[in-house]
Amino acid sequence: MDQFLAFTVVGLSTAAIYAVIGSGLVLTHTTAGVFNFAHGAAGMLAAFSYWQLAVGWGWPVPIALATVLLVLAPGFGLLVERVLMRPVQALGEAERLVMTVALLTGCIALARWVWDPNTARPLSPFFTDRSAIRLGPASVTWHQTVTMAVAVAVAAALWFLLHRTRAGTEMRASVDDRALASLNGADPQRAARLAWILGIQLAAVGGILIAPTVALDAQQLSLLIVSAYTAAVFGRLRSLPLTFLGAVAIGLLEAYLTGYLPRNDYLPGLRLAAPALLLLLALLAFPHRRLRGRDRRLVRVPLPTARGSLVFAGSVLVLALVLVTVLTEDAVISYGTVFSLGIIALSYVPLAGFTGQISLCQLSIAGIGAVVWGHLGAHGELWALPVAVLVAGAVGAVVAVPALRLSGVYLALGTAAFAVILDRWIFTLPAFDVLGVRISLFDQGSVAVTGPDLFGWHLASPAQLLLLAAVLLAASSLAVAALRRGRFGRRLIALRDSEAAFATLGGRLLGAKVAVFALSAGLAGLGGALYGMQLQTVTAEQFSLVAGLPIFLVAVVGGLGAVGTGLFAGLAFVVPTQLLTELGSWAHDLSALLIALAGMGLAHSPAGVVPRMHTEWARLARDRTLFPVLLGVLGLCWLLAATDTADGGLLLGVSLVTALALNAHASAGGKRDHDVPVEWWGLRHPWRPEDKEVLSRATAAS
Question: Are residues 344 and 363 in contact, defined by beta-carbon separation less than 8 angstroms?
Fold first, then answer.
């Protein structure tokens, strides 16, 4: 009984922190219409800032607390609202979700860049010099008492703000209908600004309160928000009392699992994954209308031509040949993952680009593909590669089951929970038997991965594996382009536009979603297997949720609807990372920070960089005079670099300058296509087959 009471006290203390953080999530979503994935990261930055002031610089605790909670946290909230969220307010829920994911990635990268993760930074609980309070056989520390008192005070203050003040009424009205609220004298921008300030302050309070009980680690503190996600979903993202009740349930569950979970090799990860499991169950158990995504402003999905797709696939192969003939073996190892990671990024295109289903577990599914190939293809058996694709596709089909009920930010929450479950529990399991079949994952360590045997040759060198990955990326890009041009691709885009209309017209939602989830998961599994071959050894940490967020962001920056996003994402993710790594260890996390900043620039190009580049360079590609000149210059530079006749950096600079100059000359020869109104297509610029769909959609929208 004494032990039960002790765990209950610990659980209630933890629940109070989850309640504070979860109430900030509910406040931001209820008043600003944004589910903030970076909420926990904001609390993490507050905890690090408090440590820096109170411990690192020796400031008095009251002054350090006041600085963080009254200066830094409100300033960060104002920055997020003004610079990041306001520009994407009119774009829709998906774009706001991407912005908060970018903010999460950026906060983690910034914290790891500023504060060395290899240095321990312990924080002392509050009032450690005072004796614990005895409640019968149980004892309550003063830190736990302060934590629970703060949670009660926050609950009362928020209820009073939202239901008994003009500011709270204005905040709630603004999210329901900003235009109508403005007509009645409210200021939606002021309401959103206040919501972000208070939300970030509550995250800061929770981060500072929980930091003394856990390691001050950027990734761990940011992912503690999963428990607060669960509490907020218990409250259906609108009810503070239900949010607090959910927080109590989660806190007690974690405490009781810590004390009473049987000790064996299979269950330790269950306690760590319990909040994510509860989150997934809560999403499925509350079929409320608010759990369906809101209307969003749709972005046009490019329609690739057959000729353009073949040219792109050939360009991928040419790039691979250039890399293996120009780069040294060490450089091929460093840059060889461009194409395998490109396949993983390409898996987002049919799922998120065509269908509008946002998934944050693609890299985790890629880990399944890597593990299956590592075990079944240990001796290069080529048949194991399609098996890895099929197993990953089957996992994707399982993930698709809740997709029929969830959409938008809630589907993203569900897939993020699935990734956390894999990372914290499934991937940590030792080998086990199911119906007589031995199943082995990462074996609580690492898995050795080798290349395949192809027509009697064992592909093991970095150059051979790079070429294999390039061939499969080219083939996968052709397949996705054919899907976009085909009937099924058009049906997927119709599903993205309106699920209700798709079902009304006879479409089968479950069948379509299962098929596209399985397809995208199969692509991710293929990319994961190739990625493992190039790494030679894989671990579970390489396929975690946090590791997959930068790849998702790069794919978003490239354009989720463009087939070329796979190659773009591979280049944009690998090349800057390798170049910055050469500068020194201080730049290790700078590449992730730059990727996050690029994701935050989504408002300037919601359709992505790849379609914009295609538009800007299309005229040069069609020019029968300038384009051969460009090919000749590039071929000459390639020949000089391959024979070590001239410096590679100089030749790269010459190639870029030549390409930019020729493109500028070609663009100056006439008006660009995107400057011509739709109604003048066919008159002021040549008619193209892909224009038919654009005109049909424009006519239907009007």
Answer: yes
Element (H, E) at 73: helix 73-79
pLDDT digits (tens, 9 = 90+) for 63-102: 999 999 999 999 999 998 888 887 777 666 667 788 888 8
Q: What is the Cα–Cα distance from 465 to 527, expressed in whole angstroms? A: 12
Q: Report which of 394, 97, 410 is spatially closest to residue 284, judged by C-alpha positions.
A: 410
pLDDT tens for 606-616 read: 777 888 888 77
Average of per-residue pLDDT values in the chain: 82
- CB neighbourhood size of 671 (10 A): 11
- When pLDDT is averaged across residues 200-214 and rounded to a whole number, the result is 89
Q: Work out whether the CA dihedral 659, 660, 664, 665 comes out positive or negative.
A: negative
* φ/ψ (deg, to 5) at 538: -125, 150
Of 422, 393, 685, 629, the residue nearest 541 (C-alpha) = 422
The Cα 541–Cα 304 span in angstroms is 36
Could you give the CA distance from residue 486 to residue 49 in angstroms, rounded to a whole number?
53
Tell me the three-class secondary structure of 667-687, residue by residue: HCCCCCHHHCCHHHECCCECC
The per-residue pLDDT for range 304-344, each reduced to its tens digit, is 888 889 989 999 999 999 888 888 888 888 888 999 999 99
CB distance 30 to 290 below 8 Å: no
Q: Note the pLDDT of residue 356.
A: 83
Q: What are 519's two structure tokens?
A: 């397809």
pLDDT category at 349 given cuts 50, 70, 90 is very high
CA distance 564 to 673: 20
Residue 575 CA, distance from chain mean position: 19
**Pure H helices in 601-690:** 609-622, 626-642, 648-667
> pLDDT tens for residues 480-497?
999 998 888 888 888 887
Cβ atoms of residues 558 and 608 within 8 Å: yes
- The Cα–Cα gap between 351 and 357 comes to 6
Calpha distance 426→438 (Å, rounded): 15
Q: Give the DSSP H/E element, type plus range, for residue 454.
A: strand 453-454
**Between these two residues, 396 and 117, which has the higher pLDDT value?**
396
CA distance 526 to 544: 17
Annotate 504-566 with three-state secondary structure.
HCCCCHHHHHHHHHHHHHHHHHHHHHHHHHHHCEEEHHHHCHHHHHHHHHHHHHHCCCCCCHH
Cα 267–chain centre separation: 28
Q: Which residues of 164-191 are buried (b: 16+ CB within 10 A; e: fewer)?
A: eeebbbbbbbbbeebeebeeeebebeeb
d(CA 567, CA 613): 13
